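Batch job 17 of 40 flagged for manual review because the log was empty.
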Amino acid sequence: MPAALRFPTLATTAIAATLLAGCATGPQASPDDPLEPMNRAIFTVNDKLDQYVAVPVAKGYKAVTPEPVRAAVSNFYSNLADIGNFANNLLQGKGVAAAESFMRVAMNSVLGIGGLIDIATPAGLSKHSQDFGLTLGTWGVPSGPYLVLPLFGPSSLRDGAGLYVNFWFDPATYAEPAVRNSLYGMNVVDVRTNLLGATDLLRLAALDKYAFVRDAYLQRRRYLLGQNTALPDYGDDEDAGAEPVPAAPAAPAGTPAPAQPQAPRRGA
């Protein structure tokens, strides 16, 4: 892939391809996932790339990089992300969260040596993670169908469109191409390294990894938007076959409560 390939082009192409593939619906598709056959195919490709490329690189990075250095790298990217958090909280009308995000950037950039040290969190400034997909949801834009984007993974029509705006909120976008691409690449490695433990648990726990990731993503996004998130029904056969136990009838008013049995005395 040429280095000059920019994120908006990739994201726009992925979304356009998804819209053109609208006919790829399965007969038993979930209401949230009408494009499941296509999504599963993309998920499989992404999973193989992750397994054979991203995970080995992340494990190698973790093996050769001291933990304090990895923490500093994570703090640096977290500080850059707070700029987008400030903009999205402001667009959502969350004044306090926007102010705290702005103060985090100022404090960590100056006192934290360009964000390498997180000074703001111990100082009591909470992190308010947001993105433009959540901003659109706050404005009432529906999520649309669930999507799995090439390379980027779980998303939706709304969140996929929000990726384009998130790109312009990222300060790395305005760096020289060589610097920008290096920052993007290091960010991918950092994020993947921090998720190594979670993916190991996912591999052990999920019978259907695709459905597990989809349900978790959709529930998380609804939760962040303050929407009602009922747990999906995975069909517990043991509970489904059990008959409900009828409740004991209430005693008439004025009826004395039955005496509690007394423990036998020693020596009786």
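Reviewer: the log was empty due to a logging misconfiguration, but the result itself is present. The beta strands are 146-149, 153-156. Unflagging and moving on to job 18.
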